[in-house]
From TrEMBL:
Compartments, as annotated in UniProt: Cell membrane
Official protein name in the record: Potassium-transporting ATPase KdpC subunit
NCBIfam families hit by this protein: kdpC (TIGR00681), PRK00315.1 (NF001454)
Lineage: Bacteria, Pseudomonadati, Pseudomonadota, Gammaproteobacteria, Pseudomonadales
Family: Belongs to the KdpC family.
Length: 183
């Protein structure tokens, strides 16, 4: 029995050191050297150097003068990220979407884009389709006293066109650019 237990425990200790210590330290070291910004969370800092968020995570913005991200089932908390698990046939989901659509609807602006009333799979998607950002322009223009054409240009300047997939706008980057505009 001892002749079988000793090699098993030795192998367990060796594999624990390799997979639990050596491998994670190696991957972390390579990431820090090759991709330091991404390895540290792709943080967005203001002019004072204070962290304002991450390019990779959505965050809520308070007030009518800001572009709003997609709703979050986990209230934008990274620990509770994930979908609500409500089926499309669930009345609670339909009620929440209807309530959000009524809140966002404006006369003459057409239907509310789906991205503004539905959550992403993680609940933390930092991107919106450009159409969803443009839908918010009349509200922001009225709140900030800015011409809609100025905000259109801002959305266009912050639209990312990946090699594969649809164009997207990072809401934090868009609001950061909006904050830097003179009032």
């Amino acid at each position: 029995m001892l002749s079988q237990l000793r090699p098993a425990l030795s192998l367990l200790a060796l594999m624990t050191l390799i997979t639990g210590v050596a491998y994670p330290l190696t991957v972390t070291g390579v990431a820090q050297l090759a991709f330091p910004e991404q390895a540290n969370g792709s943080l967005v800092r203001d002019a004072k150097g204070e962290v304002r968020g991450s390019q990779l995570l959505a965050q809520p913005f308070e007030g009518a003068g800001w572009f709003q991200p997609r709703p979050s089932a986990g209230n934008f908390a990274t620990v509770a990220s994930g979908a609500s698990n409500l089926a499309p046939s669930n009345p609670a989901l339909a009620e929440r979407i209807d309530k959000d659509a009524q809140r966002l609807a404006s006369e003459g602006h057409g239907p509310v884009p789906m991205a503004l009333v539905t959550t992403s799979g993680s609940g933390l998607d930092p991107h919106l389709p450009p159409e969803a950002a443009r839908f918010q322009i009349p509200r922001i223009a009225a709140e900030r006293g800015l011409p809609a054409a100025t905000l259109e240009r801002l959305v266009e300047q912050n639209t990312q066109r990946p090699l594969i997939g649809p164009a997207v706008v990072n809401v934090l980057a868009l609001n950061t650019a909006l904050n830097e505009m003179p009032r």
